[in-house]
Amino acid sequence: MLAGRSCVVALSGGPDSAALAWLANRFCDSARAVHVDHAQAASGALAVAAGRVATQIGMALQTVKVDVPSGPSFEQQARTVRYAALEAELQTGELLVTGHTADDNAETFLLNAARGTGMTGLGGIPIERGRVLRPMLDVSREVVRAFVAEMGLDAIDDPTNLDLTYARNRIRHEVMPRLGSPLTIARAARLASLDDEVLDAQAETVPIRVGTGRVAIPTAPLRTLPGPVANRVIRRGLRRVNPPYPGTSQMVDAIWSVVRRVTPRVELGQGVVSYLSEGCVVLETGGFDPPSPVSLSTPVTSFGDWTLAVVEQPDPPPAFPLGPGFAAFADPPELLVRVSVPGDRVPLRNGGHKEVADVFAEARIARERRRTWPVVAADELVWWVPGVRRGWLGWGHPSSGRYLVSNILQEG
Q1: If exposure means fewest CB atoms within 10 Å of the residue's CB, which of 18, 166, 190, 335 is most exposed?
Q2: Domains of the chain as residue ranges with CATH
């Protein structure tokens, strides 16, 4: 697995990562190590051990310090910031390699089973996902420790691995010794992961639309797919909107309540909400600002996740487009693309106006979507709500000598 690869080793200072560092240094085309300092009681000793191991095998080592935010699970929070820090250090073409063993995989299998997980959880730790590779998952911790001793690598055990307040440590020290070889449990996890891969491949055929802090999943296929596949589509969306984790079964059930119109909107936790919009169930995170206003200009105008094609020409188009996704304006003033604000009005043919909020409501655009939906406007007069409605402005006359023609290339 390592041959011909360019690798960054997650070197904790423990025996497992020390063995992996030796192997990567021997077999990879290029290899270097990164140590993540979590600023905990044992972090100093682990950093020293990582430095000793790197020196022993002649591998470059970089140390990255992180702050672990508070949360219900320190282990989970530490894992999140650790992987984020490690993957941030990857350069083009590099893989992140970690020292997980068959014992780790067996522990994960049992831990997930105790939580009532589905097939994905029973699949344990993936050998490869994205840019992360775990080449020692088929090797027992006992064999790895013997190898470290034989090579004389000066690694140490993390003392927190003895703390029985953590569920994983209770499984490691109290359950696993009673079950025999971890390889048989790891094999069960591997078989489950192979089945899971087939279901995941089916879920990947469902297109989802990904924007800034937002994922839209079409509800029609969700209602027709087998349940295990549909659930994976939802988890895929959760992973994209709040990477890298695919949420909990409670989150999936809550999203189904939206899909089935039991409730119009649910809060999923971690700042994620779900609601229906335009034939899709939307997963969205808060905490991001709407795009700043930009001028409607040629040849392309980008606004957040939206892209509008714009052409300026002296002659009118052969037919003035009336569809909501395509608009032409004669002799327009400077037009800005921005989000709507209170007071925005769309001029009507009869000389009246309609509030943009009412235009969105008539088009059944969810309130959450309106925060980032563009309008093309001059002051408070909205000439065009892309994909929704064109205002009764700029229709042209014989003396018009400048036309802007625009259409939606990409909808956010």
Answers
A1: 166
A2: 6-201 (3.40.50.620), 208-285 (3.30.465.60), 294-410 (no CATH)
